[in-house]
Amino acid sequence: MSQVIVITGASSGFGALAARALAQAGHTVYATMRDTRGRNAPQVEKAKAYAAEHGVDLRTAEMDVQSDASVEAAVAQIINEAGRLDVIVHNAGHMSFGPAEAFTPEQYAELFDINVLSTQRLNRAALPHLRRQGKGLVVWVSSSSTRGGTPPYLAPYFAAKAAMDSLAVSYASELTRWGIETAIIVPGAFTKGTNHFAHSGSPADTDRAAEYNQGPYADVPDRALKGLAALEPPDADAASVAEAIVRVVDLPHGKRPFRTHIDPSQDGAEVVNGVADRVRAEMFRRIGLEDLLSPTVA
């Protein structure tokens, strides 16, 4: 059944791949991004060309996930054009690389704004529509770093992703009685096929960073990045994350897995998440709220 889907951060990487894959699967997809008339104008044209070439319903919309007004305007546009909204895909994110101490508090705040608060802005704008429909799906693109191996120099990103994942888990049980399902997608460290590492931020306090990079940690940046790349199998493909999102969206309502891991490097997140999610389910059973583990099906 065709769904109306909004994806954040869809100018490149997992977002762009998922937007195309979902449109190819027969859904109406709004690939959102900021600065559609400026920096991302070429990405808008690419999306239009893809839609025309493949005969799919792939659309773009302006959305700056750091702006309440921009997010609300994008959701209003989708409802006005499509008449409804069925699926939210929280994908927008930004990475940083460097010693944790060298990032300023303001940099941490900005990274949390992009990776965490953005989801709250979209939820507040979109969930009222899904709740009125009595049915919907919220997809969160998390990271294996929230519970798997965590190499050094990625602290702000890891912390933000962990916060987003925790928010997703809390939201899940608060939406089931509205008929809204939650699916958490957990990609591993794909070093190719996305712009995460290429566009990652760096510490603003360069003097503090230099103390690390010219001191006992001088070898860490190179070894960390090369080590991550070495763990990744040669056939690892970022498109597999998009394919996993399509599979989850296309499953019947109420039958979707709570988590889906796509981790070619097998960093251990699936094992730890498995334990954490079982503990969560057991707690809900013990306090008499087991029904919140599954969405109400109309």
UniProtKB/TrEMBL annotation:
<comment type="similarity">
    <text>Belongs to the short-chain dehydrogenases/reductases (SDR) family.</text>
</comment>
<dbReference type="InterPro" id="IPR057326">
    <property type="entry name" value="KR_dom"/>
</dbReference>
<dbReference type="InterPro" id="IPR002347">
    <property type="entry name" value="SDR_fam"/>
</dbReference>
<feature type="domain" description="Ketoreductase">
    <location>
        <begin position="3"/>
        <end position="190"/>
    </location>
</feature>
<dbReference type="InterPro" id="IPR051911">
    <property type="entry name" value="SDR_oxidoreductase"/>
</dbReference>
<protein>
    <submittedName>
        <fullName>NADP-dependent 3-hydroxy acid dehydrogenase YdfG</fullName>
    </submittedName>
</protein>
<dbReference type="Pfam" id="PF00106">
    <property type="entry name" value="adh_short"/>
</dbReference>
<dbReference type="InterPro" id="IPR036291">
    <property type="entry name" value="NAD(P)-bd_dom_sf"/>
</dbReference>
